[in-house]
Amino acid sequence: MKLFDVYPLYDVTPVSAKGIVVTDDKGQEYLDFYGGHAVISIGHSHPHYIKRLKDQLDKIGFYSNSVKNPLQEELADKLGRLSSCEDYNLFLCNSGAEANENALKMASFHTGKSRVIAFNNSFHGRTSAAVAATDNPKINAPINKQQKVTFLPFNDSDALEREIKKEDVCAVILEAVQGVGGLDQPSTAFYQLIEKLCKKHEVILIADEVQSGFGRTGKFFGFQHHGITPDIISIAKGMGNGFPVGGILIHEDIKASYGLLGTTFGGNHLACAATMAVLEVLEKERLIANAKHLEGYFRGLAAEIPQIKKVKGRGLMIGLEFDFEVADLRKRLIHNQYLFTGGAKDKYVLRVLPALNITERDLDSFFEGLKAELNGTP
Ligand SMILES: Cc1ncc(COP(=O)(O)O)c(C=O)c1O
C-alpha cells in the first residue's frame, strides 16, 4: 500500500529532536522555528514531558470516558487557574478541528440557530462545520458547503451588526491572531463590539485559540489582549507539545447534559499527562513571559533588515512580510541555513512559531541565517 499523496514534502527526514534542534537521518541539525505547525510549545523531548508520559504509560495509557479519570479533573483545575478561566468547564477531544466542531455544535445546540459568522482568511480546521467556517473554497467539498456561513472582513462594524441582527446566527468564531491566514488581528474595539453584539442577540462567541492559546502570544489566550470573555474557547496544538489532544472551554452559563458531546479517545490518560506536563513547564519556566519578552527582541532584530516590510503577530506567533513570495526563501532557509520556518495563505508572509522556551541567542541565529540567505551569502 502507498500513502494517500496529499502533502507536498520537504526532502528532510527528522529522526530525533531536543529543545529547538531537530536532527535528520544524515546527522544534519536544523533549528526549528516552526514547531511543526505551532505544536511544539515547551521544546522537543523536554525531560519533564518525557518523564510524565513514561510514568503514565507505566500505570495506564487509556481507558474510555465511561469510567472515572481523575487526571481530567486535575487538568481542568490547573488549566482553569493558569489561564484565569476558572468559570469555564472543560471538554476534551483530540485535535483543533474537532475542538471547533464541538464548539460550533454547542453554539447551535444552545441557541437553536444554525448560521455562523466567520472572518475572511480564517482557518478553523478540516471537518464539517469547522471547514465550512474556513475561508478556503478549495478545501470545502460539496457536503461542507451545505453549512450556512457568512464571511466578514475584520473591523467592519456595520456588516457585523447587519448580519447579527438577522437573529439566525448561532456563533461568531474567530482567531485572536490569524494563524494560517497570515497573522492579521482585529482591533480591540472590534473584538469588544463582537462581544457586545453577541450578548445582545444571544449568539455564542467562540475564540479559536487552537494556535494562539497556551501562551504563544504572550498571554495564556490571545483574546486576553482585548479584555473580552468568549462563551467557548477552543484549544489544541501547543496543549500537548506533539501529543494529539484538543478541547473546548465552555462558559458555565452553558449547561451540559449527558450525551450532548462525546469521544472515544478524548481526555485519555496519556493525553492528560502530556497536557499536565506542558502546563507545569509553562508555569515553572515562566514561558508565557518569555514569549512576550522575545517578541520585543524579535522586532528589534527584524527592524535591521531592509527587505522586511512589516512584522505581524504577537509573542512567538509572529511573521515577517516581504514584497516577494516566500516559498522559495523557506526552501533555501531549510537547505542552506538549516532553519525550519512556516508559510501562510498570504504568500508574502514567513511565519515563525518556535517553542516558547527559546532564547535571544536562538533568535540571533535565526536572523543571522535569514540575513545570509537574503543577501545571497553562504
Ligand atoms: C486556528 C486553528 N484552528 C484550527 C486548526 C485545526 O487544527 P487541527 O489541524 O489540529 O485539526 C488549526 C490548524 O492549523 C488552526 O490554526
TrEMBL record:
Listed cofactors: pyridoxal 5'-phosphate
Keywords, comma-separated and alphabetical: Aminotransferase, Pyridoxal phosphate, Transferase
Gene Ontology MF term list: identical protein binding; pyridoxal phosphate binding; transaminase activity
PROSITE patterns per the UniProt record, alphabetical: AA_TRANSFER_CLASS_3
Signal peptide start and end residues: none
InterPro entries, alphabetized: Aminotrans_3, Aminotrans_3_PPA_site, Class-III_PLP-dep_AT, PyrdxlP-dep_Trfase, PyrdxlP-dep_Trfase_major, PyrdxlP-dep_Trfase_small
Domain of life: Bacteria
Stated family: Belongs to the class-III pyridoxal-phosphate-dependent aminotransferase family.
Protein name (record): Acetylornithine aminotransferase
Organism from which the protein derives: Pricia antarctica
Lineage of the organism: Bacteria, Pseudomonadati, Bacteroidota, Flavobacteriia, Flavobacteriales
